[in-house]
Amino acid sequence: MQDLVAPTVATLALVALGGYLLGSIPFGVVITRAAGAGDVRNIGSGNIGATNVLRTGRKDLALATLLLDAGKGAAALLIARHLFGSELAGAIAGGAAFLGHLFPVWLKFKGGKGVATFYGLLLAAAWPLGLMAGAVWLICALLFRYSSLSALISSASAPLLALLPLTAVGLPVSTPILALTIFAAVLIWVRHQENIARLLKGQEPRIGAKKA
User: Fold this and answer.
1) Where residue 211 falls among pLDDT bands split at 50, 70, 90?
2) CA-to-CA distance for 77 and 40, rounded, in angstroms?
3) How far apart are CA 102 and CA 191, in angstroms?
4) Residue pLDDT, tens place only, 6-41
5) How far apart (Å, rounded) are the C-alpha atoms in residues 54 and 60?
6) What is the DSSP annotation of 194-206?
7) Distance between CA atoms of 136 and 69, rounded to whole angstroms?
């Protein structure tokens, strides 16, 4: 998709603010509190994402958190792209939503790790890219049984997948979307520093294992 009209600085600032505020909605906290499951920040790892919500024992709440965290990134990108007819506006709104999830103003900038929101962005930006990145996660999860490692490998592969010459399904993606993919992938690695350290020490819990 080519930009119909070059967005103004004011437009980009507006979509960035709107995207950030949408991304800042801490669905994991809202859902667990509303369901009477307590504050997810006081459970397990203290993270607000779906993986930690699952530790409440409520699979339905975890699924709802996963879908809403993915959906807010997708919604920010799609709304901005539709309203302004601009890939750049969409990418900035999506990137701002991703930052909002990682550093939400409502939780004193202590948010999630962004994996679900990352896949939501990819699916909205270019669905084949989102599906391929998700497939990489699934394959790695089946092989290694580490959720964090799967996310790291999948996010690192996403910019490379975005460059595949598959024009029939919308790849390679536009420059703004490629930049968004790289930006989000780098931040996922930054937010997973503790997981990386545990992986190197052999202390990272596997999928399905109870957290000590």
Assistant:
1) very low
2) 27
3) 8
4) 789 999 999 999 999 999 999 999 999 999 999 999
5) 8
6) HHHHHHHHT-PPP
7) 20
